[in-house]
Amino acid sequence: MAGILDFAPAIVLLPFLSFLIALGAGRYMPKGGALAGIGATAGSFVLSIATFFAVSGGQTYNQTIYTWAEGLDAINLTFGLLIDPLSSMMLVIVTLVALLVHIFSLGYMNDEGETGLPRYYAGLGLFTASMLGFVVADNLLMAFMFFELVGLCSYLLIGFHFRQDGPPSAAKKAFLVTRFGDYFFLIGVVAVFATFGSAAFAGPDAFPVLAEEALAGEHSVNTFLGMGEQAWFTVVGLLVLGGVVGKSAQFPLHTWLPDAMEGPTPVSALIHAATMVAAGVYLVARMYGFYVLTPTTLAIIALIGGFTALFAATMGVVKKEIKQVLAYSTISQYGYMMLGLGAGGYVAATFHLMTHAFFKALLFLGAGSVIIAMHHNENMWDMGGLKDKMPVTYYAFLSGSLALAGIVPFAGFWSKDEVLYETLIHGLGGSPILLAAYAMGLLAVFFTGFYTFRMVFLTFHGEPRSGTARDPHGVRWNVKGPLAVLGVLAATTGLVNMVPVEKLFGIEGIDFLHQFLDGSFSSLNAHHYAELIPYSSGYIGGEAGTVAIGAAVSLGFALGGAALAHVLYNVPEPVEHTDKLGSIKTVLYNNYYQDEYQVWIATGVVQPISRVLDKFDQGIVDGVVNGISSVSLFAGGRVKRVQTGVVSNYAALLTLGLTALLLGLGLLGGWFA
Amino acid sequence: MTTKPQLKLGSHLVPGLAAVALFVVMAVVFLGASFPNPQGFAEGANITASIGYSMFNLDFGDVAGEGFLAAFIVIAVTLDVALDGAIHLARREEGGQMRTILTDGGRELKRTLFDDEEDDR
Amino acid sequence: MVPPQYYLLLSAAVFCIGVFGLLTRRNALLFLMSVELMLNAANINLVAFSLYWGNVTGQTFTLFTLALAAAEVAVGIGIILVLYRNFDDVDVTNATTMRW
Predict the structure, then answer these.
(1) I need a labelling partner for A640 at 20 to 30 A (CA). Which of A197, A399, A468, C86 fits?
(2) Could you state one GO biological process linked to this protein (chain A) (predicted)?
């Protein structure tokens, strides 16, 4: 089958090529290698679009490209490509966002006279390439390797301004916190190999399929620790989930993400919208056929998601820096995706992943535009009144904000509503955990609406509150272009999956995403997952009634939050209202003391243990080694004195030795008998 | 005035005790060993001639012996080499300088330099 | 015939005298002489056992040993000359440059 899908490896390789070019020749090129990156990501984008349409036409691609370790017992470690609707959709998202971020960087980095641009563009190229490699990975080990590469690139890019104090520390934190989760992921990968003998996502020996058959009793798999298959699969699922929680910044491993705002803003856009953070959720979606088999894992995912959505949203309410607000909104939105996945809404979560990618990239790039205008001052209390000075940014940002807050008909409304709807009906079907998660998600909608519009009003409305806000720095086409593209997308992508409209008015066939994700491999499509979901559905007043009620409630909460923000902050001279929160304010400013308690765990628990182990290592292990060496040295120093250099002494030793030898032999051989 | 050799006693003889001990051990072993009856040579056999024959692998001798021609050649060569080596070791270069053997640890060189230095002074 | 024990005792005595000289003397020339004694102790054994077995091999071998002893002395004298040149003495205990 020679088709466009045979060019799929090029999608990954082009950004990698741009990485090599920017690294090797970037400093001899105009714009520090940006053009190579733009060209490569544009090429990847075009190929991704072509792939997308090919997949829409029913084509799929699942090939092993390279076997890099051949196992003795049929376990081969391979690199391969799996192109199905999910990955082709993700390819389009990643390449589009990466392309726009590259273009935006021209305005944010080049025009601002930053140094080290080849390094920056090399990082972007590698980042994009690793995420694309992760997206198309056809087995869990390859996914893990690219997952780690993504983490490495985010480390490199967050710490781009390595001469300042903040960024290196933030980069280290991001790296270490995600690494903590990845540690569990790695064990999970090994567990999958040990259990199924294969880690492929699709094909004849796909491990989700094997797990399904094992649970149906068709054949047996290896389980460990004396667990049954169901329990063991739950353990494996939770291990892999560790990596997801770290990467997607879910509670309690979310602490790295707000700090990661130290990186350049386009990098934040890339991290939050399309690459690093999306990787975690994408991984769950990728192996959803496995998770869907274990209700416990699903419930945990849903609970983590719902809790994180609410938890992060409350912290976003009090932040002063525009990027901090966006960071917490990212955590919160990824919480929704986890909630959707945990609640059995595979399509809904994927949908939210897509819409979020667009509107969050838009918001970050918009924030970047504002930051350029404000001469790199990120404090919203120094802004205000930027609406008239930078209309393109304002309207694009507004489009993104409406999407984020979930106001109809912007993208975020459709996807978030579908996530909540899936949670609601499955919760009503007899799952109190999901109902609790739903309540948290719904409450988070209110906070989302509030902090989003607080941010908009503080930044763009009212009177300018500082000199720079009165006379902002202008931005050029390379900033406005990406904003315009994403602004349109944020307003419209929701229309690809208008389930509420379909359900309410009975119009068939406008849930395009559902249909799209239903295509291709029978073990990987949404229909198959829907059959496996361990939940039953319940409705209030019929399906259409539930849809209407769910949508109305979530829209109402979002509008309520927005209205509160309007009352409090859309005034010419807004003041801080955080003091009204009383003691909660301190808690929120300190992010619920998450960092503090994690640092306490590190210094209060882990450090003493490490110290004891260090003592053991230094004292006993090293002591034995050092002791042996010093004994040898001492003995050598003494014994070498035998070598006097005087011939007579050697002769005496020889004589004595011969005598002793004769005596010994004689005694043994009975010569003296 | 002539001097007679004198027996010097002292602590320098202590290492000799090792040799005495070796002798004691060997003596005890030999005296304790038993041998079968010796065979001896036949009456009137020409020992010297037999040695000569065996040296050249000839089988004419009265007494049995093994051939030593190869050993003879090897010893001849060894003697030659030893002679050359002795001459080589013993030869002294003209002008009192020793260039053939450099095992003096740089002593000669140092002395030369030192003398030169003194000359300069 | 004389029993072989006597020959063995004689040779052991000669050998040990050689060793004694080696251990107690410091003069290189006396060393050479001591070594000669030790070599000839071996020769006594060879000749004695040649007679004992009724075979001339031992005696022939002794001739070669004598030749080797000559070679050894030649080289030994050369070494002593060098020793004297380098250390201005034939005292073997002075030459300690090859100690540890």
Answers:
(1) C86
(2) ATP synthesis coupled electron transport
